[in-house]
Amino acid sequence: MEFEWKKFNLPGYGPLKIKYIKNPEKPFIANGGPLEGIKVDKYFFEYFSKKEKNACIWHEMYHTLFSTVLKKIKNELFYCQKQANWIEEFEADKYAANNYNKKITLDYLKICKKLYQQKIVIRNPKTHPPIQERIKRIKKLK
Ligand SMILES: [Zn+2]
Question: Which residues 6+ apart lie within 8 Å of 109 measured at CB?
Answer without folding.
Answer: 93, 131, 134, 135, 138
